[in-house]
Specification:
Layout lengths: L4 E7 L6 H21 L4 E7 L2 H13 L3 E7 L10 H6 L4 E5 L13 H6 L2 H14 L5 E4 L5 H21 L2 E5 L13 H8 L2 E5 L1 H8 L4 H14 L1 E2 L4 H21 L3 E3 L14 H8 L3 E3 L4 H13 L7 E10 L6 E5 L14 E4 L12 E4 L5 E10 L4 E11 L13 E5 L3 H11 L4 E5 L4 H11 L2 E5 L5 H17 L1
Parallel strand pairs: 1-2, 1-3, 3-4, 4-5, 6-7, 6-9, 8-13, 9-10, 16-19
Antiparallel strand pairs: 11-12, 11-18, 12-17, 13-14, 15-16, 15-18, 16-17
Helix pairs in contact: 6-12, 6-14, 8-10, 9-10, 10-11, 13-15
The structure holds manganese (II) ion.
Length: about 500
């Protein structure tokens, strides 16, 4: 993981005299240090900016600093905004305006005109907000006291979204084989995603992967087998199948690492020279933070890697998912999600089992090993990125994952059961109206608000289906957005 940090730029001006500026400087230092203790990424105090030049120089530095994933601004005192124009106009990093103040309350006895001149964020942050509005800057505004826990959570979530933006801009996807024949929703404009999201999506021959697999040694397979045994219960006698998956994993990882790729896709229609569709191999790669998409779905693969990076510790509980089948019994309506093989064990409620089963679809000569488990219960989202032709749309739906209500002993794959918002059928109508795919990224620790922030940073359309969404409202929203995005 790259070490990301966020720069704290405090606005002021020269009129106040050195005494006030020293106090602002000391407090900004203290706030950055305290925030660093409670936020997922460090806050680095850079400057109390008093001139156009200072702001512009700091922004230029931020643009070129790889570790800097975004800037956070705040005006302890008044900072005339014309001096921010050149800097903000040049800004290429995510931007959060943190409307806070140093003191939590108004000190009844102490307050006088000196106190007012020092503590005038209510005044300064409004001037600061105007210029970003006038510049039409994509930004996040977070208001509240800097020691408040709810504010920490929101700042932290924004930071994670900004890290998602940084990871997205460096994303390289390795494709083995093309998209599954005739499928529409997994297609997309690779040039457009590189322009908007930074993704480099390119193809490598399946034959190159097979060649790489042939260089994997028995000792390397032994080492990975030891790791499988540590993390999973081996529930099959077919050890040869597990060893074959280990060989696939080592070869895919080697090729990705060599090319700097963080995500890959393949298709069961093109496994020439391979005995098994990578199942366990893909699952264990996802557990390590790599993105994956089945049937050549490179969009969902890259999104999986981005959402993983946005999650806890830079590798959260996010996974490639597919809507499979419904339980439409009145009063207990649920979706059942799974995939042919490849569901990331970061979703697992308990220790996954390695099983081998026949796979009827595709070119599998041998029964592929895969991890089988139930998904955790809890609030989550599913996200789908689709290409609308000329623009990208990110659709996010809130869901409530549940412990699967039946054991399904003959289902040979990992499974997650959930209730979509606002309810299964209304949520389904909304999802289909918006054009959401059957492939999604399911995440327990990336929220819809984080994805809204991320979409704003990447300048793509965002659609949220929540407990408050109705099909009528959504239809109107989509019509309006269609117009807006044609004009943009
Ligand atoms: Mn699929």
């Amino acid at each position: 993981m790259k070490k990301f940090e966020f720069w704290f730029i405090v606005g002021s001006q020269d009129l106040y005299g050195q005494g006030v500026l020293d106090t602002v400087d000391a407090r900004a230092k203290e706030m950055a240090a305290e925030l660093t203790k409670v936020l997922p990424y460090p806050v680095v105090y850079k400057v109390t900016a008093k001139t156009n030049r200072e702001i512009t120089e700091t922004v230029k530095e931020a643009n070129y600093c790889e570790e800097c994933a975004g800037i956070i601004t705040w005006c302890h005192t008044f900072s005339p905004s014309k001096m921010w124009i050149n800097g903000l106009a040049a800004l290429q990093k995510p931007y959060c305006h943190f409307a806070t103040q140093y003191n939590v309350g108004i000190p009844n006895e102490e307050i006088d005109m000196d106190f007012m001149n020092l503590n005038q964020a209510a005044h300064g942050d409004r001037e600061h907000g105007f210029i970003a509005a006038r510049l039409r800057m994509p930004r996040k505004v977070i208001a509240g006291h800097w020691q408040d826990e709810a504010v920490h959570r929101r700042l932290g979530d924004w930071m994670k979204a900004a890290v998602g933006a940084a990871v997205s801009r460096g994303m390289k996807v390795m494709r083995f084989g093309d998209n599954m024949r005739e499928v529409a929703v997994t297609e997309g404009d690779k040039v457009e995603v590189q322009i908007k999201l930074g993704w480099q999506v390119n193809t490598w021959a399946v034959g190159d992967l097979v060649k790489e697999m042939n260089t994997v040694t028995e000792a390397e397979i032994d080492a990975l087998m030891a790791e499988y045994e540590k993390n999973y219960d081996i529930a099959t006698d077919n050890i040869a199948s597990i060893r074959y998956q280990a060989k696939e994993e080592i070869a895919i990882k080697r090729m990705m690492d060599r090319e700097g790729c963080k995500a890959f896709s393949n298709t069961f229609q093109d496994l020439y020279g391979m005995e098994q569709l990578p199942g366990l191999a893909s699952q264990h790669l996802m557990a390590q933070g790599y993105g994956y998409g089945g049937e050549g779905d490179w969009k969902v693969s890259a999104m999986t890697a981005v959402l993983k990076a946005m999650g806890e510790g830079g590798n959260g509980a996010s996974a490639f998912m597919e809507d499979y089948t419904y339980h439409l019994v009145k009063g207990q309506e649920y979706s059942l999600g799974a995939h042919m093989l490849e569901v990331c064990p970061s979703l697992a409620a308990d220790k996954p089992r390695i099983e081998t089963h026949h796979l009827g679809i595709g070119m599998n000569e041998k029964d592929p090993a895969r991890l089988v488990f139930e998904g955790k219960a809890g609030p989550a989202v599913v996200a789908s990125l689709i290409d609308m032709g000329g623009r990208l749309r990110l659709i996010v739906q809130d869901i409530e994952a549940v412990k699967p209500i039946m054991p399904m002993p003959n289902l040979p794959v990992a499974r997650v059961m959930w209730r979509a918002m606002p309810d299964l059928t209304t949520g389904l109508e909304c999802w289909i109206t918006a054009g959401g795919a059957h492939h999604t990224v399911l995440s327990y620790d990336v929220s819809a608000e984080m994805l809204r922030d991320w979409a704003r940073m990447m300048d793509i359309e965002f659609v949220h289906i929540s407990k408050d969404t109705t099909p009528e409202k959504l239809e109107e929203e989509l019509l309006v957005k269609d117009l807006i995005w044609k004009l943009k």
